[in-house]
Request: fold
Amino acid sequence: MTQQPTLLNEHFSVLSYTGSSQNDMPEYAVANVLKQGRPHCSAVGKNWDLVLEYKGDGFTLTHVVLHPPPNCSCPVRTVAFWISSDKPQLDAYASKYSALSAEKTTEGAKDAHDPFLVLVTDNSGYAEVELNEWKKGKYLHLKFVEAHPSDDPNPNIDVGWLPLIGFDGANTPAHYKIGDVPEALNCARKKLKRGFNPLCSDFIDHLRSAPSAILFTGSSEEQKKKVVAALGSVAENSEFSAKLKFFEANPQDQLSQRLLQMVGLSGDAPALVILDLSTGKKYVHSTDQDPTTESATQFCKSYTAGTLSEHVKSAKRPANDRHPDHPSLYVATANSFKEVVLNPAKDVLLDVYADWCGPCQAVGPIIILLADVLKDHPSIAIAKLDCDANDVDRTYLPETSIPNIKLFPKGKKEEPIKYKGARSLTDFVKWLHDNATDKFDLEPALKKAEALQAVHEIREQAEELLQAVEVQFKAVGDKLSDKDKTAVTEAVDKLKATLHGEDAEALKAKFEALGAASTELTNQYKKFLVEKEQKELKLVKKVHSNEEYKKHMDEAKEKKQLVVIDWFATWCGPCKKIAPLYGELSEQHPDVLFLKVDVDELSDLSQEAGVQCMPTFHFMKNGELLDSMEGASPQELKEKVQKHK
Reply:
């Protein structure tokens, strides 16, 4: 059987690099190129030299793959690289190597006294090459020549995962034609065939590199068979396949649901969509009927001819453009933006938000109260726009951060004023008074705002207490006496009855009454949590101070014992999910010391350890870091404990 190449990355280490800046963050270090996950972000500039050293007797390279850096603005465009047996002397290279450009790289490779190979990435930052001639070496010198053009005023070079494929020097077979990177290595982008391709794990990379037509096949098997048969010839048409990549998507898949959300479709019926990430534009085949061979052909022809109308995602417009639960508040959609926000008769304060955004959730109730304060002012409107449910007009709202709060004054809609002040209700009222076209009486507005703010603050506390009591009662309510149970139940009912009233003092009294009635419940719940944590920890030691941490590490060093450290956060979902397994491992490996460190409780210690995400697991022996693991992969955690013990 022919010997197959393997992934060599774990045998390489960084010998030198010229692209690091003094302020580089460790999470974007150049060593990231050797492992899948985080990108490397260089210092500002280009033509950075990276030298990698092979830990064994040498290597023979057969393929090089370069994946695009996720969520980066300056993906690398061109990489030149040399393979050598001797340590590269960077200062000795001719001047023409120190300032290559993407256009001159190929030319330079032809006449170089030490010929180099060239890797040129597509628009997404991906490249893959098979070396025609195998060359054995000990060192790999890479020059990150240039990034793709971007709008960044201070461009650097961002590099993703760099799989290096080949043979260990001592086990290199005679040269033969390999072809594509072996699929078993799972490190190259999947090849697409003409026609419809299933959504694959690197679909987003394909989408970044070229426009794609996506067929959502509907909710039934019958719909799928019918529409795939009808559109198969369209996807295989060379007129279209030269300009579009075609994908078939099951609306039940998680990625498909995200794409459907992007265009505002349900996925219940078959749909044909074209996405072009380079322009941010979306095109949707008419949803009045299922796509047919004829209609899909015309749809693709119109797209390639540049005559297809862009699709705008818009939520359903509510009655009177008002929020159903808060009639003082306007609701803008993509389709009503002109009428609501650009209304020439009103100053409109617009809050662009998303339901999942924490800061949006914090300011959202204040915006509702602001609408109540100014509901009687005829020329001021307070509105909200959900940027997940609606496409945002970037002419007026070029910012991508949320919440994005802007005032669109009447007569000056082209010059909106961005709100940058504090986010209390009275601050909003004062700012609007200062910036409104038609002034309102400030003192009465502030008094009304202060009264509404007082009710709002106590209501928020009351709602939090009600939620806490519900959780606690469910967990330990059976441990209370009948008297305490009755007291808690009655206090809950009284607080709920006054929760939506406007009397702050009455609400505060009921809130304090529930707090007093639930004292024993809270005490029982605290005991419950302590017992639960103790059972979960098993043999794991939870660290609460730097001194305690040092003591554990010193004792383990004396015993030459492996130490596994779980750097976690109480708010981290994956941390909670993997915690029971971590406890079980401590019982399965009693010769290993398992520690848990809360990164918020001991923030200085976690920063010193270089922890960037939660959970992070460190594997240490004799005071040295042997290995690390980011994320909550049960299998990887088990394997690393077994490997290093």
In short: The first helix runs from residue 102 to 111. The first strand starts at residue 6 and ends at 7. The radius of gyration is 31 Å. The chain is about 35% helix and 20% strand.
